[in-house]
């Protein structure tokens, strides 16, 4: 009986061992799979160390940025509140000063606009000056034109007077011309240096004296003329010529070295020296011929 029990017990344990080994063999790969699977789950679920470190830093930066924005908003609100309080508490003078400051800032902030205004003012000033200069130039041109017109009128008058004088000389009759030529030739000196005499040598001037204003208007160095163009009358063997409203005649003979037609070709003038009146020839300025004035 004991042997049978031993055999049964041995068979039982053998059976248990076989079954256990089979189960162990079946369970071993499952356990290995189970051991491998959790590792895969851990790799998927667990983030890397860098991600774990980056995530808290990003959260901290977002929190820090939000905090700074809140602080900045609080500060702006506080400043605005303070400004409103300051503006309410400021006096009118402070408000005026603040307004001036703001105006100044606005002017400083608009330099281009200010420069444009200044440039426009300069342009306007330049235009005004140009208009003034143009007006002055127009006035000068007008004056020059008037002067030119006056000069032309004077020249025309002189030409007309010369034409009248020439016409009057041409109106002389041939007999009168011959008579003048004969009178002038008869009054020619042979030796003028010994034949002529000054008024002082003659004892002083005793003829008619032309008033000073009339004399300055028609006589003197600035008023030259030609004797042949003057009205002439014959008194005895001499001649008298009318000029400036007065008559005068030659007292001295004329120098023999003057040209034979000097009375028609030479410019002469009448001047008063210290002792009396004299006739001067511009071609011979050192010679002077004594003359006398007459009322008629």
Produce the secondary structure layout:
Blueprint (H helix, E strand, L loop, with lengths): L1 H44 L3 H41 L2 H18 L1 H61 L2 H13 L5 H4 L16 H7 L13 E4 L2 E6 L2 E5 L11 H4 L2 E5 L4 E5 L2 E11 L2
Antiparallel strand pairs: 1-2, 2-3, 3-6, 4-5, 5-6
Summarize the structure.
The chain has 296 residues and is of the alpha+beta class.
Explain what you see:
The protein has 296 residues and is of the alpha+beta class. The protein has eight helices and six strands. The chain has a six-stranded antiparallel sheet, with no helix packed on it. Strand 1 and strand 2 (238-243) form a beta hairpin. The radius of gyration is 70 Å and the shape is rod-shaped. The relative contact order is 0.06. The model is unreliable at 29-43 (pLDDT under 50).
